[in-house]
Amino acid sequence: MTASRENWSARSGFIIAAIGSAVGLGNIWRFPYVAYENGGGAFLIPYLVAIFAAGLPLLFLDYAVGHKYRKAPPTAYKKLMNGESLGWWQVAVTLIIGIYYASVLSWAGSYMFYSFGQQWGSDTEKFFFTTYLQNGEGLAFGFVPTLFIGLVVVWAIVMFILYGGVKKGVELSNKIFMPLLVVLFTILVIQAIRLPGAVQGLNAFFTPNWEAMGNYKVWLAAFGHIFFSLSVGFGIMLTYASYLKKKTNLTGSGLVVALANSSFEILAGIGVFAALGFMAYSAGASVDDVVSGGIGLAFIAFPKIISSMGAGGDLFGFLFFASLTVAGITSMVSILQVPIAGFQDKLGWSRKKAVTIIAGGSAIVSTLLFSTHSAITFVDIIDYFANNIGIVAGGLLSIVLVSWFRRPLLKQLQEHVNQYSSIKLGAGWNFMLTVVTPISLLAALLMTLKSIFTEGYGGYPIEILLPIGGSVVAIFVFCAVVFSRLKDNGPEEK
Predict the structure, then answer these.
(1) I need a surface site. Which of 63, 100, 436, 463 has the fewest CB within 10 A?
(2) Tens digit of each residue's pLDDT (9 = 90 or more) over 449-464
(3) CA gap 168, 180 in Å, rounded
(4) How far apart are CA 287 and CA 305, in angstroms?
(5) C-alpha to C-alpha distances, 162 to 67, 108, 168, 332, 405, nearest whole angstrom
(6) For residue 208, what is the DSSP state?
(7) Does residue 492 belong to any structural domain of this protein?
């Protein structure tokens, strides 16, 4: 059986889709907080070092493997070094991320509408946890209708895009959503920097704390953020590169994606901290007293900021949550494209069949698990284990197996990239992949494991933390072992 692989309509389509994957919820709510906590303006130095020392080398490795073998991770790694299990580990990571990512995306979509009339009232924390999530004590599996409806809508939109295929689905949606995101967020930033107290917030964000640069944890934070931010090490960029035409400038594309991603993160930092400065000004407090990251920033702090603007805050709130929603949709599409392509390659499924089974099955699990009173508990713990163990371990293995034990393969990949690329990979790329990137990933992984077993995570009781986290890791291992043993029935390319 032979089949020609789907392609992007042009390199620009790939670049826009890759930027859409890289720019997600984390850019808006994670980067500003990480930067602030790790030296403010001084953090930009380790951040830039991390991009060139770890982010881009791993991004180029993903591009090289995907483009050379024109397959999703399982089949690509099988062709590269008989490492199909590694590919299925990465597929499992994306499946798990997709299942909980939809939940947070549905919250952002709901808050777009809650912004009109500022329906969260004066106590934004109580509204989010008690009224909206109906959060229960411990593990509570009661049904929450509003969460269920939001998840159904999110999965319907994402599956509709995925059914369209690479050109008419993934690429077209990014061509619509990415310009929309830039417009929405630019308006929000302009609005934010005009607020009283905005300068106070920007000073907190950009004022460098040079002492922080002497702390190894700051450097680990920078390296750790880059892997998540660029969507490297867990199959997304590898899969996207597999749809590129054979004569493609890979390194030029990678630089554009990295630059666009980092530019958006800094823009997000300006918008978020200008707004936090206004909140501090309104409350007569310092920025330290109002700053928060992650879910706390998006669904508790920002609604407070919006409420303090009076009636004019409705539009500001809509812009913020619409930006989160749009950024989340493009990222979620890229996340699910990995397992869909993986099963298409392995079992020869049509796109329609793969989307129905993989995305449809994920949608069922997602709506059942995250329509409960324990939705936020599941999101928080699963996100921590998927990112800090799943992504980091998968990225580390992909680098070590090639750069330490298959050196001739690294040379072949380098030659493949250099064939048509404007910026040639050389000794510097080899050194980064062999020494700097794996050491930083290994350090991050070991510190995470040590932290889990000595301090726990998030204040959760060990009887909740370990069963959920352990189940996540067990799924990675199960997929890596079992799916790699399935009989190949995929199409051969013409």
Answers:
(1) 463
(2) 998 999 999 889 999 9
(3) 18
(4) 12
(5) 21, 21, 9, 10, 37
(6) B
(7) no
